Amino acid sequence: MNYYGKAIAHANLKDFDAAKSALQSFEAAAAGVDPRRYMHTNRLVDIFNVAREMIHGEMKYHEGEFDDAFAHLRRAVELDDGLAYDEPRGWMMPTRHPLGALLLEQGNVQEAAEAYEADLGFNDVVARSGRHPGNVWALLGLHECYTRLGRETEAALIKPALDVALGRADAEVQSSCFCAMPLGEECCE
Length: 189
Prior knowledge:
Elements: H1 2-12, H2 16-31, E1 38-39, E2 42-43, H3 44-62, H4 66-81, H5 96-105, H6 109-120, H7 136-148, H8 152-168
Helix pairs in contact: 1-2, 1-3, 2-3, 3-4, 4-5, 5-6, 5-7, 6-7, 7-8
């Protein structure tokens, strides 16, 4: 997972050679893990599959290959949703946060809103144990989506929860994922 983190970081810094090198190291390390090995209730290979899709998704996104990127990120969401319930979670970072943030950055506001709504548990798309109610990252993204979509009433309804979550955050939160530009900044070169 160390190589996963490095690949994601390098992809976001647009250091694609280093990202590809970290991905290769990730693949080599993952190949050495017995496919029958579990971390609590999930097979490690299933967790690695989420990581792999996230790496490819963020690499493709920052390389400007948006269709491929979103295909990988959507697949990561599906795989994450398929993990067995566990505490701590088998996959710690909600996969819908980068999907939503990057969709929003590209102007796909409705799909981004749907990702955040599912993550927060505003509908029944995600099993209850996989939801992240009150999560500051998703609330910030969803509030921005509602504002851009002209859904002012819904934006106003979640604003108090967002304010509480922002007040409790131990870091300044400017988007729903560090993989995206801070809200209000222009995307892309």
